[in-house]
Amino acid sequence: MQSKKLSTKKDKSLKLAKQARGTLEKVIKMIEEDKYCPEIIQQADSAVGLLKTVKKELLAGHLDTCAFERMKENKDGAIKELLKIYNLSN
């Protein structure tokens, strides 16, 4: 873990990721207990939604801070990085 304080976006992302982990653990338990499939699917969708929000928050924070600085230092590298992130997000 980083010694410096987490940014607001990363802190929010961490909380959401932990919530997604808890939801995923619930999905696993529900499968093990042979619960009704639509209920499991609903919980799985919840975990996916949380993780999508984590990605959005991290990307917003990156664009607001890191990407701006990187663009000034290495424009071509920053563009390649952003395209990679974009491709991973779709």
TrEMBL record:
Places the protein is found: Cytoplasm
Single GO biological process annotation from the record: negative regulation of DNA-templated transcription
InterPro entries: Metal_Tscrpt_repr, Metal_Tscrpt_repr_sf
Keyword Metal-binding in record: yes
Keyword annotations: Cytoplasm, Metal-binding
Gene Ontology MF annotations: DNA binding; metal ion binding
Residue intervals passing through the bilayer: none
GO cellular component: cytoplasm
UniProt KW Metal-binding keyword: yes
Subunit and interaction comment: Homodimer.
The name this protein goes by in its record: Copper-sensing transcriptional repressor CsoR
Native organism: Candidatus Nomurabacteria bacterium CG1_02_47_685
